[in-house]
Each structure stands twice: as C-alpha cells, then as structure tokens.
Amino acid sequence: MRPEFFLDRNPGRRVAEELRVRGWTVHRINDVFPVDAQDIPDEEWIAYGLDRSWVPLSKDGRIKTRDLEIRPVLERDAVLFYLDNQQLRSIEMVERFDTPCRHSPGRRQGWAGRLCRAARPH
Q: 11 and 60 in contact (C-beta within 8 Å)?
C-alpha cells in the first residue's frame, strides 16, 4: 500500500498538483477543513492526517520545535516532512519533497519511527 500525504496550506495548490502528477496521493488541508484551515491549529490538522495514516508535509520547519504541534507525531511514532527554506518556488518545493522519497529504500516506505525529516536538496 502506497503512503498518502497531507499537505499544509502554505505550499499551495501547485505543489499538490505537481506531486500528484508524479504519482503521489496528496490531500490538501483546504479539501478537508473550511476557510483553508485558517482557524485550525497545526496540532489538529497534523493529528487528523496521522489518524488517517497520511504523512504530513509542511513548509514550516518550526513545527518540529514546538511541543504542542509536534505532539501528535511523537504520540503516534510517526513522521512529518518539512521544508527547511521558506523562500522556495513551487517547483523547488516539489523537488525537495519528491527527490528524497525516490531515493529512499522502498520508495516512500519504511518511514515509521522517524520523527521528522527536512526535505533538503541533494
């Protein structure tokens, strides 16, 4: 079974569309929550996705350092992918999310047990 992903609001629609073109199953936060999830705390959308076995993807690397926001990941011994650069263009975000996954053992499998992982260029 291939993993599914839950994209935070910040990377945007273009990132979701391009990841889908590359074969990813991506759920956008605004497809699930009203008003682009503006009133939904990070810990709530992360928990919602993890409860459905969706791997959270975020543009906000600070999530990993905030106790309340990272708690759902820790409690579920799950993984969260984040970008370590807030100034990336859409295609750069896609490359950073997609490239490490294509070079991981089992192609996007075997992530359980890792807390979070920065999507960095190679």
A: no
Q: What is the pLDDT of residue 110?
A: 39
The answer to whether the predicted template modeling score (pTM) of the entire model surpasses 0.85 is: no
Q: How do 4-7 and 54-58 pair as beta strands? A: parallel
Interval 6-23: pLDDT, tens? 999 888 899 999 999 999
Residues 6+ apart with CB under 8 A from 58: 8, 10, 11, 42, 80, 81, 82, 83
Q: Is the dihedral of CA 81, 85, 86, 91 positive or negative?
A: negative
Which secondary structure element, helix H or strand E, spans residue 93, and what is its range? helix 90-102
Average pLDDT, the chain: 81
Q: How many CA atoms lie within 13 A of 85 on its CB side?
A: 13
CA trace torsion 80, 83, 89, 93 (10° rounding): -40
